[in-house]
Amino acid sequence: MTDTPDTPDLPPLPRLLVEPIVRAALREDLGRAGDLTTDAIVPAGARFRGAIVARQAGTVAGTGAAVLAFGLLDAAVAATVERPDGARVVPGETVIRLEGPARAILTAERTALNLLCRLSGVASATASLVAAARPHGRARIVCTRKTTPGLRALEKHAVRAGGGANHRFGLDDAVLIKDNHVAVAGGIAPAMRRARAGVGHLVGIEVEVDTLAQLEEALAEGADAVLLDNMDPEQLRRAVALIDGRAVSEASGRITRETVGAVAATGVDLISAGWITHSAAIIDLGLDAA
């Protein structure tokens, strides 16, 4: 467990975003014939009382999706969230209490736990980076578009539960000019000018740079943010000094728990890490009957 503060006041995602994801996961599990095991063994009127309990320490995320999984199968399932998204848990601590029709709870169990364990893993990975960076600077930890297909909204919410912040949500909410865009356009300046001409005045433009010379070119063209890609701490310090507040500075590339402190100490505004969504280990949680 990290020393990241709880964030229990994190607003939940709108049900409109979450429900299609949960429904798809339930359909995938139920298949063509439903829950053969539960329907054969558990009487239709049987009741279940129990709790989803942490098996290891971490930061919770995905409670809304988990609760919805049970409720979509039977609205009579009563779910009480004891530890909301953003809360830290220790082994043995109850996250969600459940009571209601046994068939619905047992059928939804794996779908709910898959989402809850996965998203809590993302939140916990984020919290570990936030905690490692905090003593060294003011940089915020942000995620990327390296998310599980279909789970982006949930995983980015889990990043916020872990104390991080979100980068762009997709290709349509910001311009990020990367190395291949620059190569096709023939340079940073022409790429930025085309981008400015092609998007609205409220759309920010970020440019990925590998060298200080590229950084100077991006700043001269009025970049709103610069992604300082795979620069070592000394290069990052020089880049921050060169930017001098004229643009948002973002460090990216090979960010780990061991390296993030040195990166934060350079004075960058943001530190982005893809692995907190694409490679985070799950946090083990399980459903126990009372």
From TrEMBL:
EC number: 2.4.2.19
Quinolinate phosphoribosyl transferase N-terminal domain ranges (all copies): 35-120
Keyword Ligase applies: no
Enzymatic class: transferase
Lineage: superkingdom: Bacteria
Tagged with keyword Oxidoreductase: no
TM helices/strands, residue ranges: none
InterPro entries: Aldolase_TIM, NadC, NadC/ModD, Nicotinate_pribotase-like_C, Quinolinate_PRibosylTase_N_sf, Quinolinate_PRibosylTrfase_C, Quinolinate_PRibosylTrfase_N
Keywords tagged on the record: Glycosyltransferase, Pyridine nucleotide biosynthesis, Transferase
Domain Quinolinate phosphoribosyl transferase C-terminal: 122-288
Pathway this chain belongs to: Cofactor biosynthesis; NAD(+) biosynthesis; nicotinate D-ribonucleotide from quinolinate: step 1/1
Function in brief: Involved in the catabolism of quinolinic acid (QA).
Family classification: Belongs to the NadC/ModD family.
NCBIfam families: nadC
Name of the protein described by the UniProt record: nicotinate-nucleotide diphosphorylase (carboxylating)
Native source species: Methylobacterium crusticola
Gene: nadC
